[in-house]
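#structure-requests
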Amino acid sequence: MIPKVSVIVPVFNNEKYISKCLESILSQSYRNIEVVIVNDGSTDKSEKVIKEYRQKDERILYLSQINSGPSEARNKGIVNSTGEYLVFIDSDDTVDKYYIEFLLNTMINSKVDLVCCGYKDYSKYGIIDHTDFNMEGNIPLNNLLDMICAGTGGVLWSKIFKKEIISKNNLRFNNNIYMSEDLIFTLEYVTHSRSFKSIKKYLYHYNRLNENSISANISIEHLENSISVCGNIEKVLNYVNYDKKKINNIITERIQNAVLNTADYLMSREKRKVPILREVLDIPYIKKCKYQFSTKKVIYKPYIFFLKKDLLMCFFIYGALLNKMKYFKYEFIGGGSSEKSLC
């Protein structure tokens, strides 16, 4: 019997991209799929577009809910899915024609519980092939955890999951976390799995051009979310006896990036940026990490030094200078990187 794959797609106000997303899914070389679309209270024309596609393809299962966030939408998709395997696709992204076929065949033929692949990163800087899974073939658990916690390794896309493992362990997305909830889900899934494999193909097309996506909008409100994510990461990694030093490094890097993103937000939008950032740095969870902040990039070393020494006015002045240098490089020299990490 040919196994069914459920493709779960949460949608919120994405009329600009949803057509391309659905076209890439419905034209997959592997045909035995169901497309579980969960409309998370969209107020634009997303529903109209989805219903037009549903009339043309009976493989689409359309669900809707009041706006509750992507976690609740994905949970609804999981509960209503009927496939033996699950893949998650964001509604502003697209996938290669052989995306599902390659992932599924690798999972079945290798008899593993999770298969990962690379992706094509579409941004204003161009198209870049990328993968955090740099160990082709079978991956030991500790190596996989390293990869999941690095870069974009913890995202849901570029992976195929077994519905049986998700159902048996009642795995769901945390509704109280609205960024990196996919990382926590992936880590929890891995702790209940036994074998893993990666393939060196770039089959997912990640769209960084959508400026309305959650990940494209960073503000001070994300800080509390970041702290909650770190607490969950510690809990899961301690459960599998992951190296304590590595856990500390992962948490420190995530907190450092969260603080720097918050500072960047304050720099351009808030007159009281110095006292607000000082309050942020006094949060106990952040305070215990602050003195371990570091960077290998020489140009950012003064930036981190000012932050650790609480010389916040110097920190913001130097930060403004760095931003001008980045702008000059991008506008007049060309190129650059979309990577925000300073580590």
